[in-house]
Design brief:
single chain, alpha+beta, 5-stranded mixed β-sheet
Length: about 280
C-alpha cells in the first residue's frame, strides 16, 4: 500500500491513480495526511478490504510531504562505515549519533530549494521510517511491527552552519527551508521483499554520487527503533532518517557542494524518486 499527501489531502495511490481516503471511506478517516497514523491499525484494516475503487489522475508536482507534521523527527548519523571514514569521524560501536531536523524543513518530493548565501550545501540520501504504533522500550525483534511504512528522504546539509562554533550544530545546519524533502509516498513494509535490504542512490543530473544498500547499515532499522525507544517513546507519525552512505560532497577531494541550477535526484528502490532544483537566494 502506498499512501501520501496530494494537495494537502490523504490519498491512497494505485496503478490507476489517486484515491481520496476521506471520500472513499465516507468520512470515516480524516483527510489530514498526518492524522492517519493515530488510527493506523484501523486504517490498515479498512484499506486491506477496500477492493476496486475509482482512482483519478494526479500530477507528481502536487505531492507534498507524506508526513507533514510529525511530533518528532529523528536523524541517525554515521550509520555507514564508509561514510564515517570519509567524514574523518570514529565509526560508532554501541549506538550511532542522533540529531533532529526541525519540521519546518520538511517538504514534498519535487521542490525548488534556495541555497543559503555563502553556504556549503551537501546531499545525503536516506531511507526514512514512519512510525505507525507507539514504541516504548521495544525489542529489536518486535520493531518492524511498530512501523507504518518507509519513504525516501534527503538530509540536505549546510556544512558551515553544521560545523561552526565550539560544538557542532547538526540540527541547525540541516534545517533550512526545504532541507528535508520526503516522498513521494509512504510504502507499507509488506510491499518490500526484504525491508532490511533496500537500494538508495542520489545523483546531480546524470552523475551518480551515492549508491548504497540498507543491508550495509551499521545499525539496522530494528536496532535504531530499539535504541531510540529505550530513551524516548516513538509516537505514531514520527519519522526517522536512518543515515546516508558514502559519497557526500564534504568527503570528496576536492570538496564539492551544490550550486545554483543543480538538480539533485534521489531514488530509493521500491519507493520512488525525489527531485530538488537549487537556486541562489
Amino acid at each position: 500500500m502506498r499512501i501520501g499527501n496530494l494537495s494537502g489531502r490523504l490519498n491512497l495511490f494505485t496503478d490507476g491513480g489517486a484515491v481520496d481516503v476521506a471520500e472513499a471511506s465516507g468520512g470515516r478517516f480524516s483527510p489530514d495526511p498526518q492524522a492517519i497514523y493515530d488510527v493506523w491499525d484501523d486504517f490498515a484494516g479498512w484499506a486491506s478490504t477496500l477492493g476496486q475503487v475509482d482512482a483519478t489522475d494526479f500530477q507528481l508536482t502536487d505531492l507534498q510531504a507524506p508526513t507533514p507534521a510529525p511530533a518528532q523527527v529523528f536523524a541517525i548519523g554515521l550509520n555507514y562505515r564508509d561514510h564515517a571514514v570519509e567524514s574523518n569521524l570514529a565509526v560508532p560501536d554501541t549506538f550511532p549519533p542522533v540529531f533532529t531536523k526541525f519540521r519546518t524543513a520538511l517538504s514534498g518530493p519535487i521542490t525548488t530549494v534556495v541555497l543559503p548565501p555563502g553556504g556549503h550545501v551537501d546531499w545525503e540520501v536516506e531511507l526514512v521510517v514512519v512510525i505507525g504504533r507507539r514504541a516504548e522500550r521495544v525489542a529489536a525483534a518486535d520493531a518492524w511491527s511498530h512501523v507504518a511504512g518507509l519513504t525516501a528522504g534527503q538530509d540536505i546539509s549546510e556544512r558551515i552552519t553544521q560545523l561552526a562554533g565550539p560544538a557542532p550544530q547538526f540540527s541547525l545546519g540541516k534545517s533550512f527551508p526545504g532541507f528535508a524533502p520526503l516522498g513521494p509516498w509512504v510504502v507499507t513494509v509488506d510491499e518490500f521483499e526484504d525491508p532490511d535490504d533496500i537500494q538508495l542512490q542520489c545523483a546531480v543530473g546524470e552523475e551518480i554520487l551515492q549508491n548504497g544498500r540498507t543491508s550495509d547499515f551499521l545499525f539496522g532499522v530494528p536496532a535504531i527503533i530499539e535504541g531510540l525507544s529505550r530513551v524516548t517513546p516513538l509516537l505514531p507519525g514520527d519519522i526517522i532518517f536512518c543515515g546516508t552512505p558514502a559519497g557526500v560532497g564534504i568527503g570528496r577531494d576536492p570538496q564539492r557542494f551544490l550550486q545554483p541550477g543543480d538538480v539533485l535526484i534521489s531514488q530509493v528502490s521500491g519507493i520512488g524518486e525525489l527531485r530538488q532544483t537549487f537556486i541562489s537566494s
